[in-house]
Amino acid sequence: DIVMTQSPDSLAVSLGERATINCKSSQSILNSSNNKNKLAWYQQKPGQPPKLVIYWASTRESGVPDRFSGSGSGTDFTLTISSLQAEDVAVYYCQHYYRTPYTFGQGTKLEIK
Amino acid sequence: EVQLVESGGGLVQPGGSLRLSCAASGFTFSNSWMHWVRQAPGKGLVWVSLINTDGSTTIYADSVKGRFTISRDNAKNTLSLQMNSLRAEDTAVYYCVRGGTDGWYWGQGTLVTVSS
Predict the structure, then answer these.
(1) I need a surface site. Which of A52, A82, A99, B78 has the fewest CB within 10 A?
(2) Mean pLDDT of chain A
(3) What is the pLDDT of residues B46-69, one digit of tens each?
(4) Does B29 touch chain A (CB under 8 A)?
């Protein structure tokens, strides 16, 4: 199984500051047919289902603010929120969809400092 | 707009059975791979099972293999999960998820509690 490891487990950032969450896969999740990485990021607020933020490692989902960006390739990936807003407080998960079993990172809890 | 509405959750005793359903709308259900993903209280996300567009391919996580069965009815736009031999560790919110390489879309979930 591909293991997804996020860091840090929790993060406190001041409003307007940058938040960075890292995700490492235990093996490459690069799709050779289109040279894109099969990685997604989800945002989950309390009592709500996960919401898609980023797919193909760097493609922002429609309607997601442009302060969210994804980067990385191979085994190392990053979700960046350029200027933290109060509504961004949530748990963020990375996930690979390279092959079954599809696995998620353990989650990173993002809070306001 | 993608809509996925789960139902069928509840309290069941260890060893019991439960059948979850998911009503899909707002997209072409018959063209979509579908998944079940679960989340134990206060814990992370765990993929459970997938089914391809016509139901000919199903795959399960090792933890549920032989106990859970995923199925779909494309005529009724419905996804199901039959859960047998339930254990305490199956307690979780179960999400119906529309799959795809352009990201996954999630229902609100239904809570399954396995307890005596």
Answers:
(1) A99
(2) 97
(3) 999 999 999 999 999 999 999 999
(4) no
